[in-house]
Design a protein that fits this description.
The chain folds into three domains: 105 residues, no CATH class; 126 residues, Serine Threonine Protein Phosphatase 5, Tetratricopeptide repeat, CATH 1.25.40; 82 residues, Serine Threonine Protein Phosphatase 5, Tetratricopeptide repeat (Alpha Horseshoe). The protein is built from 15 helices and six strands. It is mainly alpha-helical and 322 residues long. Helix content is 59%, strand content 4%. The strands form three sheets. Strands 1-4 form a two-stranded parallel sheet.
Length: 322
């Protein structure tokens, strides 16, 4: 994917380090896609609601608790209120989820995958296990391998909506936005996962630079679920891309009303405030983001940039307040 939307998480500096200039992204050519980092921010797993371990709503499984997963990548998740078809082929044993969480908490990703692989060896046609394995792979940034697992899960249980949504997420990050859009259209034919499907389609269309359609999808996601904080957040990022900074601030405020611990909302608000020369407020936002998630490279880069400017001011290389 030839992505240039310079960086909502320079793929969190490809997920951890930092390159989105503290000011704001410069203007781009119309055919430029969104940067991997910006897409990563849009696709933070906070779009699944609070973290949960074990069996959740309708017996469907998903994921990794926020504390454990944050050791790998911020990624709280939960299932839809409605279960996709598949029953026991989707349900994963709570004990396995707990064991995987423990290993991820130790950053022992290989061991976590071994635990899942052992279960898959016993139950090779268990869709939930393949989905769970894909989820762990996706946490580590191995999108291609994660996508392969989601494909397996869907082949076993075609109505497994969570696997569809995660497949869409992987396709977007792999530069296959048009395919992701088509997958969203399929999910939207049903009545499960619609808000998140609209959100993901909005992100895919934003990546394709079809901002009018992207906005319509993000608003539709919000209409379906007014408390879907990541849809508001993605809307704010589209605002920034289109230089609508005041509107972006309004949408970020809404994100933080819904979820006061949405670290990247603070980080992005800090960037905007810094671009508006409100250094004190920007610094507070960056520090707040890092107090919630030490993995927020956007906030870390923002603070480092501010510190660098202070050093240059002290050395007389730049004027104060410049």
């Amino acid at each position: 994917m030839h992505l240039r939307w310079r960086q909502v998480v320079v793929a969190w500096l490809a997920l951890v380090a930092g390159a989105l200039l503290v000011a704001l992204p410069p203007a781009r050519a119309e055919d430029a896609k969104l940067s991997p980092s910006l897409l990563s921010d849009m696709l933070l797993r906070q779009d699944r609601g609070p973290a949960g371990a074990g069996e959740r709503q309708g017996g469907n499984v998903n994921g990794i608790g926020s504390a454990e997963a944050s050791a790998v990548q911020p990624a709280p998740v939960s299932q839809d209120a409605k279960s996709p078809a598949g029953g026991d082929q989707i349900k994963v044993a709570p004990e396995l989820i707990k064991q995987v969480q423990e290993q991820l908490g130790k950053r022992a990703v290989a061991r976590a995958l071994q635990l899942i692989d052992a279960e898959i060896a016993r139950q090779p046609t268990h869709a939930g296990l393949h989905h769970f394995r894909g989820f762990v792979l996706q946490l580590t940034g191995n999108e291609a391998a994660a996508l392969a697992e989601y494909e397996k899960a869907i082949a076993i249980v075609p109505g497994f909506v969570e696997a569809w949504l995660d497949r869409i997420r992987s396709k977007i990050l792999l530069g296959r936005a048009s395919e992701a859009e088509a997958d969203c259209n399929q999910v939207l034919k049903g009545d499960t996962g619609r808000a998140r499907a609209y959100h993901l389609r909005g992100v895919a269309r934003a990546d394709l630079r079809r901002f009018t359609e992207a906005r319509a999808d993000l608003h539709q996601a919000i209409e379906e679920d007014p408390k879907l904080a990541p849809a508001w957040f993605s809307l704010a990022l589209v605002d920034v891309e289109q230089k609508q900074l005041q509107r972006a601030l309004t949408h970020l405020e809404r994100v933080l009303e819904i979820d006061p611990r949405f670290a990247e909302a603070y980080a992005r608000r800090g960037e905007i405030r810094l671009s508006m020369r409100d250094a004190a407020a920007a610094e507070a936002d960056f520090k707040k983001a890092l107090s919630i998630s030490r993995g927020s490279w956007v906030a870390r880069r923002g603070l480092q940039s501010m510190q660098a400017v202070k050093v240059l001011e002290q050395l007389g290389h730049v004027k104060k307040g410049a």
